[in-house]
Hints:
alpha+beta; 2 helices
Amino acid sequence: MRTHHILAAALASVVLASVAFTQSTLATVRIGEAVLADGQRMAPGTYQVRLTDEDVEPLVGQSPNAERWVEFLKGGQVVGRELATVVGREQIGAIAKSTPPGPDSARVDVLKGGDYVRVWIAHGGTNYIINMPVAPAEKGRPGGPLE
């Protein structure tokens, strides 16, 4: 009987560790253009997006946790970070003109005018909206969509 309790406790700790990691990982997205993430150029590609534990000081009149830092990972390495606007499922209809992505999924859109890319992630009943400017072309490096 004692062995059964020890095994159950060990399994519970493994499950909790797994859940904690999954909660910080929001989605995997494909960004088709070079963008600026926190002012730094980020190449087109497929990225894992995860929440950070870094606090964001709310602006006057803004609720705590209205914005969160997210990191973009490629090959397990952080290659960019940006602020995400955090909106609950109940409030998203009041601020969004388009239909949100389905539960636990993501959508990447080039916004009207082609100057910004929006990464919109719906995860665990919360929406994370990340807007990044399209990076200007550099000498010898295209700034536009993937071909």
